[in-house]
Amino acid sequence: MPSSRPLVSTGKNKLMVEDLKAPSSGHCTCCEHMLAVVSVAGRPLCLTCAPAFALDEPGIDDVATLIWLPHLDQGALGRCVTALHVAARATDHTVHDQSLTGQALSAKRAFEALLSCRLGAVEKIGTDRPSLYRSALKSLSRNPLPEAHETGLRILMKGTWFPDNPRRYLDAAQEWAVAR
Ligand SMILES: [Zn+2]
Q: Is residue 128 included in any domain, yes or no?
């Protein structure tokens, strides 16, 4: 069974997103839910889960935030977050919009509940920024910290893609939802 390890905390290799060369028919190795369309360090991932691994990607702090959520593993969180972004997108909104109603409002409230778990990350490790966490880990010659999956640290996908194509995530998530 693939692990749901959210973060690769050791090693000096760059953790960046690469598009899969051939169209994928396989599922994401983290959430096992959406199709894998990119890879990070050779691991096929969907667009919801990729930021949890791509900690060296420029703009990671705009795309994702650290939260403290020990009772859900990264894969379960990915499935949940995908559903919330898709629910809001189905009404032509995002979970960040104001004045929502119906399912979009419900999605926004659930997302904000997850987002509030940033405070737990700040309390535990002093930041909710994935880039700072990554650079702190890389600066250690030996890593005395437990692997992230052994802690409650998770990465929450905010619903935007990296600066080269910010709309990519929501467009792909909606396309995937419609095709199911
Ligand atoms: Zn996934």
A: yes
Q: pLDDT over 70 for what percent of the chain?
A: 87
CA 156 to ligand 1 center in whole angstroms: 12
CA of 36 to the centre of ligand 1 (A): 7
| Alpha carbon of 44 to ligand 1 centroid (Å) | 9
CA of 72 to the centre of ligand 1 (A): 14
pLDDT digits over 55-99, tens only?
A: 999 999 999 999 999 999 999 999 999 999 999 999 999 999 999
- The domain containing residue 132 runs over which residues? 17-179
Strand order in the sheet with 38-40: 17-19, 38-40, 43-45
**What's the confidence (pLDDT) of residue 7?**
56
Give how far Cα 2 sits from Cα of 8, 45, 69, 74, Å: 14, 12, 20, 12
